[in-house]
Amino acid sequence: MIRVLVVDDEALIRTGFQRILAAADGIEVVGAVSGGQALRAVREQRPDVVLLDIRMPDVDGLTVLGEIRRLREPPVVAMLTTFDMDEYVETALRSGAAGFLLKDTDPEALPLAVQNLARGGTVLSPKVTRTVVDGYLSAGGPEHPPKAVERLTCREREVLLLLAEGLSNAEIAARMHLSTGTVKDHVSAILTKLEVSGRVQAALLAQRAGLLAEGTG
Description:
Elements: E1 2-7, H1 11-22, E2 27-33, H2 38-45, E3 49-53, H3 61-69, E4 76-81, H4 89-94, E5 99-102, H5 109-118, E6 123-124, H6 130-138, H7 145-149, H8 154-164, H9 169-176, H10 180-194, H11 199-208, H12 211-216
């Protein structure tokens, strides 16, 4: 059972997400709270996944993200936003968010996104634009993406490609006929060589470097 906490300043959004997720098999909504209650709810309910509003009047979503990430065993956090061009998205990704979802995400896609997050995958709204990708990578990112990718071994490039497609470590292991531990080691090496702090950043860099186009060619 995947334990989910919804954090949003709007009661209508909280209720809507709670009802959609509660109706899905294998998902339990352990709380739906405003930003000021978020950290306490995370500590008390110990969710696996937190869906966190990026803009809230009572507390900044990025501040809450930073506090959650500092916990000893932090849950996976995906940011919620009403805008596909939210200027805070880049900061959230660099701060360790596992992705972001628009609040008008298709109800059928929401449980799938949560399941992917719980498996260690990444979630980026289909409406993410080239501007978000370019802006993230040009603002304090690593060197020119193709040059950064050249540091990787052939096997690491294969792992990065699957990671960029949103697969979890277990799914990558099954696809490549490797152990999950071996995949974890590859992912760790990839993040170090690319000078990024998380899977989403690595996925964005892979997209900028053209690896996704190569993989489908």
